[in-house]
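Pipeline run #58 for the internal structure catalog. This entry was flagged by the ingest filter as a single-chain record with no existing model, so it goes straight to prediction. Upstream metadata was stripped on purpose; only the residue string is passed forward. Reviewer on rotation: M.T. Logging verbosity set to normal.
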Amino acid sequence: MILAAGRGERMRPLTDTTPKPLLVVQGRPLMQWPMQALVAGGVRQLVINTAWLGDQIASHFGHRHRAATVAYSHEGLDFGGALETAGGIVRALPLLGDVFWVVAGDVFAPTFRFTPSAVERFAAGEQLAHLWLVPNPPHNPGGDFGISPEGLALSDAPVKYTFSTIGLYRAALFASPYCEIPPGNPGGIKAPLAPLLRAAMADGRVGAELYEGAWTDVGTPGRLAELNAKKRPA
């Protein structure tokens, strides 16, 4: 699942007429980078949630991207706006399997590999989520989560890293006792993801690892300009 429903307020005025995931980074729409990487990793069904200017995203990508089909969860059309991350994932669950990737459509991680082996390891275990964390960027110096010596994600830790938005999830995380939103979120309940993750971390059910490759949260026009001033990766 690729998260593409946000308004992109900090990107205005660029996002007044273009959804942030469609802003061009090094020759491609921003969200096309993770889409291509997912397909390269063997994913054959992509799910995109939309809200702000979501019709542009659907019109641009259609229902097929390379070897994958593309399905949409149109939160803006259904509920008038974005449902936040957990609300959006629960809404899209009928389109997802028991185990699935989630990545934000506004992060640039051109060397990250969505490998089948990572999915296999996760599916064979009992964790409800596995997160990829990155060294803290200047705009998030305090980080989000820590990593235990055993590879578990920690809500409280002396050293914290930033959540890259890339993760593997099990559908069970989005059900009781961690999430009380009805299946499929028919009422359009808005809910953030962090409280679910922290509750599962308290039970030792979330894994984590550090990714030290190129990664940018493309959250401001300045960061977008910096990326486009760099040489496109091979």
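catalog note: Residues 126 and 208 are 14 Å apart (CA to CA).
catalog note: The radius of gyration is 17 Å.
status: ready for reviewer M.T.
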